[in-house]
């Protein structure tokens, strides 16, 4: 099978090529046709079809005094249920308060093979205003909106290498394309005066865009259906949270749980999940040991469980695919068409909700009880239950001693036998 020139084919010819070469059959080609998107065909090379991810709703979370409904795109059954559970507890206080101290994105211009790094740094310092002007001239519309290149930071990397970091305010955009354009312009300007420049590229480690979110929850709101008092839950949540600061083995799993919610909202909002994920995990290790991003403590008077999180987060509400994908525009509308800072505050709030729900479950009933109950629907579909059979099989699985594929198959066979 020869792939040369495949990218030049139009969509129908791409699909037909796969059928003719027995990569897929006619039924599978029909499935692709049913999930075709003209927008998708323009977004990626060698486009085949849109791969759907279920979209659910976090119905109500209070962020900076406003109640928000939040679309979340995820395939994992327990994520949205946990987010709603956590948000209900967060809302029992005065909600989540979140803000940036600054919101800038960094572009790096790497100078290499320098004979005198000190002389290079002196040149950059002396010509900072000129270099900022070069950056802004490369994308003047950003400066016109009040954003653009704001500062330059010099970062020596070794005895012959220096990074010239351009800090950019991207306004309501995430800013990747803007910063790349500016970084390349600065790189070319430095080349023109004789310096060897390896590259100019943005950094997704958004340490100049750290959002901080805090919440205080009355301990009474944490009591469980199994009878554990809220004060006891709060103490155990705080102890479990402390474990996330002590061992990376606990921290990685905790942060994965946080990212369940973060990625679901970032994806639903049309932003770059990979960039956010990489930055989050780098920040979790910024002390030299990988730690949990969220922290929970009990107030001195024992009346409140206090939660906080600080994380690098550069999101946009314009640019990229945000303005061209109808589903993204729909999700933005459901959230009340937030600006970039509000969207980031929502994500930080969801992160706290997700972590709290997980910790409360861990220290009370255990994580598996609720998780496996939610997995039952997926398991029912996996073993071939029809839409009408799913609720019957789920109910049977919940009463079963085991929730696994073998028991699901046996229970489904009994359900069908009883129907005869």
From TrEMBL:
Domain of life: Bacteria
Molecular function as annotated in GO: hydroxymethylglutaryl-CoA reductase (NADH) activity; hydroxymethylglutaryl-CoA reductase (NADPH) activity
Keywords attached to this entry: NAD, Oxidoreductase
One Pfam family recorded for the sequence: HMG-CoA_red
Gene Ontology biological-process entries: coenzyme A metabolic process
SUPFAM superfamilies the record matches: NAD-binding domain of HMG-CoA reductase (SSF55035), Substrate-binding domain of HMG-CoA reductase (SSF56542)
Listed NCBIfam families: HMG_CoA_R_NAD
Family: Belongs to the HMG-CoA reductase family.
Classification via InterPro entries: HMG_CoA_Rdtase, HMG_CoA_Rdtase_bac-typ, HMG_CoA_Rdtase_cat_sf, HMG_CoA_Rdtase_NAD(P)-bd_sf, HMG_CoA_Rdtase_sub-bd_dom_sf
E.C. number(s) listed in UniProt: 1.1.1.88
Cross-referenced PROSITE patterns: HMG_COA_REDUCTASE_4
Pathway: Metabolic intermediate metabolism; (R)-mevalonate degradation; (S)-3-hydroxy-3-methylglutaryl-CoA from (R)-mevalonate: step 1/1
Catalytic activity: (R)-mevalonate + 2 NAD(+) + CoA = (3S)-3-hydroxy-3-methylglutaryl-CoA + 2 NADH + 2 H(+)
Key word NAD present: yes
Protein name, entry field: 3-hydroxy-3-methylglutaryl coenzyme A reductase
Organism of derivation: Weissella viridescens (Lactobacillus viridescens)
Enzyme class: oxidoreductase
Taxonomic classification: Bacteria, Bacillati, Bacillota, Bacilli, Lactobacillales
